[in-house]
Every structure is written in C-alpha cells, then in structure tokens.
Specification:
Rossmann fold; seven-stranded parallel β-sheet; three-stranded antiparallel β-sheet; 19% strand
Amino acid sequence: MPAKHGKKSAVSSPANTSPQQETALFPIVGIGASAGGLEALEQFLGHVLENSGMAFVIIQHLDPTHKGIMPELLQRATGMEVFQVRDRLRVKPNCVYVIPPNKDMSILHGVLHLFDPAEPRGLRLPIDFFLRSLAEDRQEQSIGVILSGMGSDGTMGLRAIKEKAGVALVQEPASAKFDSMPRSAIDAGLADLVAPVEQPADQARKTPPAGRPARSAGRTSTCSCSHVAGSRKKLVTPMRSSLKRSSTSWGFSCR
C-alpha cells in the first residue's frame, strides 16, 4: 500500500496559468477504470513522481446517486493534488483530475468540460467518450490507460489515441479484479504495454519499439498498430523515467 499523503486538499482549485502555460502541450494521461478499479488507481498513483510533468485524468464508472469521495480516497495515495472536476477546469501538469458522478467529460484546448449523460445508465461509455476527446486534443501527447473493469468501455477510446500516435497501456487481466475492460483492449490489438500494476521496474526496458507487439506475462498481444517512432520515444521515455517511485511500480517505469 503506498504511503499516505495528507498535506494537500482534494477539492481546492489550481492557480491561474499564463497563456503560454495554457497552450503548452504537456502529456495528459487518461485513466479508465470501473469495478475493482480503486485499488489499482491507488497503486498506480502511488508510483507516479509528483513532478512528472504530466497530468492524470481519471474516468471511473461511479454510482450516480452517491456523493463523489474518490478525490479524497486517491489523495491518500499521492503527493500530487487531486481535484474533482468542475466544468471548464483547466488541466495543469503534476495534478490528478477525477470525473464527478453522473457526468460525461471531454477535453478541449486543455480544458475539461462536463455534460449530463445522453445515454441511460448501463449504456454509457464515459471512458471512450473522454479518451476520444483526449486523442483529438493532445494528439501524440495523449496516453490512455485501462485498468480493472467490466465491459468494453475504453477500447474505442484507446483506438482513437493510437490513431493519433499516442500510447496505450493496459493492466494485465490476471492482476485485475475484473478483467473484461483490459481484455477487450488487448484482444483489439491496441496495447503498447500490458502489465500488472505491481510490475517490476525493469519491465519498461522490455517495452517493444513502435510497430512490434506488446508482450504480457510470457505471451504476445496482437497489436498491429504502429506510429511514428520519434513521437512514441518522446512519450514513453518520460513515462519510464518519471513513474519510478518504487521497485514494484507499473511496467513503464525504470531506475
């Protein structure tokens, strides 16, 4: 269990940024999770350096009738500030943003926008909805992560990210409490890397070059997608160097 942090508020707002900072295209990591995702999210965030230079946006399937306490729960796992998203909140690096219950969310020009769901509960795909907008907004600076969950939400969003030369990372199904979402993304051939949340740090060195299939627990996924090697190196290298808090971090960290 990652060390707890209690110095920062989970509900405060980021300071205003300059126009130059607002237009800077730092990488944004969109993380999709559903059933069984809280533990994976805590472990994931617990291994991210506070000054990684990236922003993390979490889209989880939440009960629309429950008060949103996810930011407070996740704040215990990270030294980054964790915010529950308000409409038109600008994203800043080294921060974590959590979708509120009963909302869909998109991003445009680095600003998060909230919407009332158009589909009835049970038919909504909020992870796909956000990841598609992230792909359009950040292009090759978009990173999609799919963690534990039921169904296939997130697969189409990862496809959009891959089409824009972004990076797709998926939790190893065997390590997920519910493996449907990770397995859907893997079966679609979209994952650049498949790894358990507690993957040893040196797994990053095994991340294949662009165009080669991602490997997972001794087997190979059917990833047939490829993208510009220079763009991929620009994204994966900082991911490797920044997500390295402990020797049991996700597979894209290294020492």
